[in-house]
Amino acid sequence: MDDQYQLKDEKNPSGPVIVKGKYKVWVDRNICIGAATCVAVSPKSFQMDNEAKAVIVRTIDEEELDNIIEAAKACPVAAIFIEDENGNRVFPK
Asked: pLDDT, tens digit, for every residue of 58-90?
């Protein structure tokens, strides 16, 4: 794993994690193909680990929710999931 970033949750590097106090974000590692489009769109939210899978980094809380959603939308295999505090799916719908 690259030392240039810190994971949001070391025990669950791909989530689920709580973002901005109310959104649950996670990457399904079984779906992730390592395209890294999420990193290109939102490097404050996602980085690639040594298995070429997306992980969620601590600075995700500094990112705007819209940009996190855009990163999820950019994933060619829809491996990033976002839910609100009530468990309603924000993306993918």
From this structure: 999 999 999 999 999 999 999 999 999 999 999
At 44, list the tokens.
Answer: 């404050």
Q: If DSSP codes are grouped into helix, strand and coil, which group holds residue 37? A: helix
Pairing mode of beta strands 80-83, 23-27: antiparallel
> In 3D, which of 82, 23, 29, 83 has the Cα closest to residue 55?
29
For the segment 5-24, what is each residue's pLDDT rounded down to a tens digit?
Answer: 799 999 999 999 999 899 99
Contact 88, 74 (CB under 8 A): no
Residue with tokens 């590097």: 13
Name all domains of the chain by residue range, CATH numbers in brackets.
17-88 (3.30.70.20)
Contact (Cβ atoms closer than 8 angstroms) between residue 27 and residue 80: yes
